[in-house]
Each structure stands twice: as C-alpha cells, then as structure tokens.
Amino acid sequence: MSGTFLGMPPFPTAARAALADSQLRHNLAHATGTIRGKRAGVVAEVDDWEQLRLAGAAIKDNALRSLDETLLRLEESLQDNGVTVHWARDAAEACSIVASIARGHGVDEVVKVKSMATQEIGLNEALAEHGIAAWETDLAELIVQLGDDLPSHILVPAIHRNRAEIRELFRDKMGSVGMPAPEGLSDEPAELAAAARRHLREKFLRAKVAVSGANFAVADSGTLVVVESEGNGRMCLTLPEVLISVVGIEKVVPTWSDLDVFFQLLPRSSTGERMNPYTSTWSGVTPGDGPQEMHVVLLDNGRTRVLADEVGRQALRCIRCSACLNVCPVYERTGGHAYGSVYPGPIGAILNPLMKGVGEDAQTDSLPYASTLCGACFEVCPVRIDIPEVLVHLRSRVVDAHRSGPPSAEALAMRTAGWLFGDARRLAAAEGASRLASRLGRRVLPGGRRALGWLPWPGSLWTGARDLPAPPRRSFRNWWKDRR
User: How far is CA 261 from each of CA 265, 383, 429, 458, rounded to the nearest angstrom?
Assistant: First the structure.
C-alpha cells in the first residue's frame, strides 16, 4: 500500500529537494507541456468558452448558497432509489463507515475507481488496519500503489514517472499482489496498458465490494456521475455486488441539466479532449442489473469550514480538472509531492489550508506562499476560481495566526524597515550604509545593470539565489539637495 503525506516538511524544504531531481523536472515539463498544448487547441474551438466558464461558476455558487437544502434533496432522492445514505463529519468517521460495510460482507479486498476523496481521508490505510486490501484500478493510481508511492497530480497521479520506470515497477511488483507482468515486457505504452488490463481484470471479476468517488451528484434525480478515460470505472460500478461511494458534499449540483455545462468544461480542461471517453451514471439499485446494495457517504471533512470563508469558499467550485497545475510555473518545477497533500498545485495551495485551518502546522501554513501570483491558474480555471486572490487572503490569515507568538524573521525585517522609514535621519544613515555596502561584490549584469554579488548573513539568504540591484551612487536626497 502507498504511504501517506503525514510528516511532510514545509513546502520550501520539500521543493528544494525536488528542484535537485533533474529527471523529475524533465518528466514534469514534458507531461504538463503536452497537456497544456492539447487543452489550448480544444478550448480555442469553443466560441463561447468564457460564457461557459461563467455558467459553471454560477451553477456551483448557486449550489453552495443553498447547500443545506440541496444536500437534503440529494439524500431523499438517493433513498427513494434504494441507496443507503451516510453522513461523515471527518475522515475517521468516513473510514469507519466504509470499513464497517466491508467487514459486514466478510471481504478481505475491495476494488476502487479513482477517488481523491478516499485519498484525502486515507481510506486505503484505514482498510488495511482491518485486514482489507484496497486495489486501485486507475492505471496511474495502480502505478503509484505498486511503487509504494504518493500521487503527485490530480489527473495523472504518476506524472513524475516515465515509462521505463513504470516497466520496472510492473516487472518487479505485479506478481506479488496478483497476476504478474508478462515476460519480455517493454516500455511501449500499449504493452504497459495491456499488462495492467490483464492484472486488473482478475481483480474486477473477483471483487464483491467496490469503492468509488463521484465527479458530480445530481440532487433532483439522485444520480452520481463518474467521468474517466480507461473504462476501469465502468468495471467497478457494474460488476461488484456492493458499491460504496464516498462523495464530498461540494460535488452536488441541483439538476440534471446542470451537467451540460460541466461536460463541456471538464474534458477540455483536464485531458484536452472534446468529450470524456467514459461517462458513468447510476441512480440506485436495479434488481438483477449491477450492484444490488449501494451506499453513499457524504463527506464534510473541513468543507463547511471552507464554506464559511467568504473569500475562500470559491475553492469549493473546483471540479478537479488539474488545469491550474499544468500551467503553474511552480508546480512544473517542483511536482506535486512538495505540496505534502493529495491536492497539489495551485488548488492544493488554497484548498488544504482552507480545509485544515491555518496556524496549526508549518507545512500547511507554507502552502499559500507556494506561488508566484502570476495569475495563470485563474485564466485557465473552467469555473473561474480566483486562486491568486485566495492565496493573498490566506497569507494574511497565516500572518494573523502567528501574531501572538515569537516574531518571525520576516516580521522582524518589516519592523526594522518601519523603524528606519519612520525617521528622516535614520533613513539617511541607512542610505549611506547601503552605498558603502554596495562596494562589496559589485558586478555588472547583462544590459549594464549593476548588482551586489554577495552580502554577509542574513543578506546572503537573498544574494545566494538572486541578484540584488546595487544602490545608486547618489541618493535622491543628495540629488534633490544639490538641485535646490
């Protein structure tokens, strides 16, 4: 089973290690560049793309404003369709519900269709404590699981692996958990996919219980929707006798017609396709057809905390397309593991602090700073989440959360700057000192600009990685005095 993100260091520490991995950076640049190009091509075909974005944002906002009523309508519709509905306040409660259902059927394994909600709550690890193996059936998730690894992307969890690494994983690990990889397996994508298909088919035909997520939950009809590219979701949703779906409460939309907008936005934003290869919908139990027992676990786990934040609640619009990751210059260079969460990239940098709260641990508090605030994420978001706005909002909350404790180095620097700027004589003395310091390590940059090549600590923390423009030879104060 794959590990967890518990104990991950703050983003700057994790990012530094990722930046040193040249193979990782090559894999990320190739993959994100390819997806970006495909997305741009299919989005350009849609004349009313901006109107679709506005419509998607409006639908999600409408559902969030009336979430209490919409969720109750969803529960009633599901129950009318023969589905048992459970409410889970947090990860522990959700895992307990799923484990109890699985144990009640006496199984020692379940198959899963890719679900970030189950990764968020650590369901695989929780089931393992009860002696139940959870088999991932999405190809990328299978790769992550076989490698005892962690997901690093919302859409392509194994984006940090190349095909040669995947071949070695299949050859070394598949046989220990099921049907082994065929002899002479190459790193051709078609052969790797065929090996995964043979390995998973055995598990699909054997499993009695399946666990799924949902991309959308339609309140008026009690319908759950999963969109995917491989067909593994269809196998999980139709073959087992028992189906358990773990669904975040923000996934609800009021009506079936609302899906029309999202079925245009999601595939273009995620995989760069005009439509999803597989779209599965299910609305309850049908005698003699598909699972004969269905459960839906409606998961909070911090989502109501996000809903209470007037600026941050727009993060709950997210439809998990990963477009923001593919355009983010920070993500492209560090990968997803540096974010220390199942939700990486720009959306993870806001969603994790919003759901967990700030001021509790250094890792979470570091995430709002994992951004250049370039705004590319907002430009591509299909539901117009203004991620830079939320990042700035969260940075202010992180600062406020630490005001009562010992001042940080940044706070001390700001206080010192305020003290200098608060008195003309102190400012003049500082200007004189800066001109004196500029003689240390002065060098010429392209274009004739001058910079300080080195400063003593703590200034070396800046000059060790950046060019510090050299102060001018004459201050504005002296220039003004001479001019008068």
Answer: 6, 10, 62, 53
How many CB atoms neighbour CB 481 within 10 A? 10
Q: What are the tokens at 378?
A: 């907002």
Q: Which residues pair with 295 in a beta bridge?
A: 84, 244
- Report the alpha-carbon distance of residue 159 to residue 144 in Å, rounded: 10
Distance from C-alpha of 144 to C-alpha of 136, rounded to nearest angstrom: 9
Task: Let me know if residue 364 belongs to a domain.
Answer: no
Q: Are strands 450-452 and 468-469 parallel, antiparallel or unpaired?
A: antiparallel
* Sole residue written with tokens 């598909």: 290
Q: How many domains does the chain have?
A: 2
Structure confidence at residue 187 (pLDDT): 93
In a domain, 230, yes or no: yes
Measured CA distances, 410 to 138, 360, 415, 416 (Å): 44, 19, 9, 10
Rg (CA), the chain: 26
Residue 180: give the domain boundaries: 16-33+41-303
- Boundary residue ending a domain (274, 303, 332): 303
CA distances from 2 to 5, 125, 126, 203, 440 (A): 10, 8, 12, 18, 51
Is 120 inside any structural domain? yes
Give the length of the chain: 484
Model pLDDT, residue 3? 55
- Domain of 173, CATH number, reads 3.40.50.10420
**Higher per-residue pLDDT: 7 or 165:** 165
What's residue 476's pLDDT?
A: 82
- Tell me whether residue 125 is in a domain: yes
Q: Could you give the CA distance from residue 222 to residue 206 in angstroms, rounded to a whole number?
A: 28
**Ramachandran angles phi, psi of 106, nearest 5°:** 65, 30
Contacts (Cβ under 8 Å, ≥6 apart) of 252 = 63, 67, 70, 71, 74, 216, 217, 218, 219
